[in-house]
Hints:
CATH 3.30.1320.10; 5 strands; 5-stranded mixed β-sheet; single chain; alpha+beta; 29% helix; 84 residues; flat
Amino acid sequence: MVVIRLARSGAKKRPFYNMVVTDSRNRRDGRFVERIGFYNPVAAAHEEGLRVAMDRLTYWQQNGAQLSPTAARLVKQYAAKQAA
């Protein structure tokens, strides 16, 4: 099954997550098909903390990809921010 989830990168105590499309059998930070966004939980006020390529997200969901619970929460947050 294809899933959309977060892959952790960044330094110790400074997490940075890439939102990736991957096979569910791959490791969390392993091989992925496509990077469709990022999430930076420690972004400063003037930095962008979340970005999602909504067109690519829609494409993958139409082809059967499932969002992880955390990715779903972030996509909902991003969509609300874009609507405002």
